[in-house]
Hints:
alpha/beta; 5 strands
Amino acid sequence: MREIIFDTETTGLEFKNDRVIEIGGIELLNHFPTGRSFHVYINPGDRRVHPDALAVHGITDDFLKDKPTFNRIVDELLEFFDGARWVAHNASFDMSFINAEFERLGRPPVPAEVVIDTLALARRKHPMGPNSLDALCRRYGIDNSHRTKHGALLDSELLAEVYIEMLGGRQAAFGLMPVEEGRPQHGEEVEVIDVRYERLRALPPRISATEQDGHAALVARLGQNAIWAKYS
């Protein structure tokens, strides 16, 4: 199963009028990070970044002036997401903006059935909350100290770790952790050492002779076709 953990940054909160200005995504395959990512800044045209949004993500109008417009990145975006589930925190917010951008270009919306909302998952798993991305990072011991402002790619990387934790923990998240020196990396051959050995002294039986005789008598009464006869 292929999933893209993604996040967006926007000029404001009104999806009908505001625009997407940043998209970041991390690819997971069967809940393992593949190392592939998608990241782009987008010129919102004549829409200006609202001061409240600027305080959150720090992306200025001047910074966006030379960036491509959404119609120039849409094919690359759809190619990266093709066949994958779209996974986001508070996904209704991100999808409303993404689908509004698609609608402006006459493109079909993303079907709701391929969208996963990690906020909804977190609320079911931790009904007492809080369930913001920062709160979930603290809950699962994920270092987000470098997150001074929101950023689509950074938030996607953090959310990928949180998402894997919610699905079952760090045993599935090793691809996101640094490889320790001397430990085999993915794709390397690993020598297998057979550690089996013969006991020098057999363990004593756990059932008595009387119990063994009683069991044998029971199996005999059940007949030759009884499944227990195979283990007599």
